[in-house]
From TrEMBL:
Entry's family note: Belongs to the binding-protein-dependent transport system permease family.
Name the record gives this protein: Multiple sugar transport system permease protein
Gene Ontology biological process terms from the UniProt entry: transmembrane transport
Stored SUPFAM superfamilies: MetI-like
Composition-biased stretches (Low complexity): 12-22
Segments for region (Disordered): 1-27
Cytoplasm keyword on record: no
PROSITE patterns: ABC_TM1
Length: 320
């Protein structure tokens, strides 16, 4: 009985396939470091812009906050936490902090409330398509105006001889002309109202998009179970909109805390600092009093407060 003789080199083509696989492994191994660097090459323009436009300026401002008055002093000396102590004990800063808190809380609550109310009205099936389109155009107009236009319009309307006083006097609501932006008792609330009027259309559009993304099946199921319109709103609409509402609320807190142009062009922080905000306080310290070191300390404090809000926003996005 003959036995097959085995070729010590293996079956035909085995050596070739082995060499090809080893060469393939070498070819795959060579560009491995390159593949790890390539993504950073694509990201490099963005990283460079972030470094130049964000990291360097923030680092410089933080450094300024620990020195004696910079820019105006040729050789500023290290001052430690003295600038922070000056800012935190300044009555104007404390007043600006309180005003900013009231301004952003009232504005955020009103933005969400008005945005939800108008979005619900625009999402109702009781209105026709043309009617909804007209109302959307009308409601979105405040958001289309620039800050300068909004400031000029409302300064003219809220003037003691403006149209607001004329209408309120004609309706018997007030008996004498009111200086809405000059009265210390009314200026902060008038400014807050202007900010609410200018900002609620954005929230209306965002919430309307969220409403249109809710499945009608949920409402049909709730209706079959006997839920009233109010219970459907409370148990279906609000839970479905919760991620949108929370994200918009945190974003509005950040945006409103950084509001400057509207405040500066309407009241300038006055009268008697009743509309002074953290943004206007920092600006005045730098460009009116030329105290760039204390302005830098105030800016760092504002940055830390904003970072806390940003942390909650990022956490909400991760949960979603």
């Amino acid at each position: 009985m003959e036995t097959a003789k085995l070729d010590p080199a293996g079956p035909p083509g085995a050596a070739k396939s082995a060499s090809d696989s080893s060469a393939g492994r070498r070819r795959r191994a060579r560009p491995f470091p390159v593949r790890r660097v390539v993504p950073y090459g694509y990201l490099s323009p963005t990283l460079i812009l972030i470094f130049v436009l964000m990291i360097i300026p923030i680092t410089m401002v933080v450094g300024y906050s620990f020195k004696d008055n910079v820019i105006v002093e040729q050789n500023p000396v290290f001052a430690g936490l003295a600038n922070y102590a000056t800012v935190l004990t300044d009555p104007d800063f404390l007043a600006a902090l309180k005003n900013t808190f009231i301004f952003i809380i009232v504005s955020t609550v009103a933005h969400l409330g008005l945005g939800l109310a108008f979005a619900t009205m625009l999402n109702t099936p009781l209105l026709g398509g043309m009617t909804k389109a007209i109302f959307r155009i009308v409601y979105i107009l405040p958001w289309l105006f620039t800050v300068a236009v909004i400031a000029v319009i409302w300064r003219l309307m809220l003037d003691p001889s403006g149209v607001v006083n004329y209408l309120l006097t004609a309706m018997g609501v007030i008996q004498a002309e009111v200086s809405w932006l000059s009265d210390p008792n009314m200026a902060l609330w008038a400014l807050t109202f202007i900010n609410i009027w200018a900002g609620f259309p954005f929230f209306m559009i965002s919430i309307l998009a969220g409403l249109q993304g809710i499945s009608p099946v949920l409402y049909e199921a709730a209706s079959v179970d006997g839920a009233t319109a109010f219970r459907q709103f409370r148990n279906v609409t609000i839970p479905q909109l919760k991620p949108v509402l929370l994200s918009m609320a945190v974003l509005d807190l950040i945006w409103t805390s950084q509001q400057f142009a509207l405040i500066w062009m309407t009241t300038g922080g006055g009268p008697l600092n009743v509309t002074e905000m953290l943004s206007t306080y920092t600006y005045k310290q730098a460009f009116s009093s030329y105290e760039f070191a204390t302005a830098s300390a105030a800016a760092v404090i504002v940055l830390l407060l904003t970072m806390i809000l940003a942390f909650f926003y990022v956490r909400l996005q991760k949960e979603r």
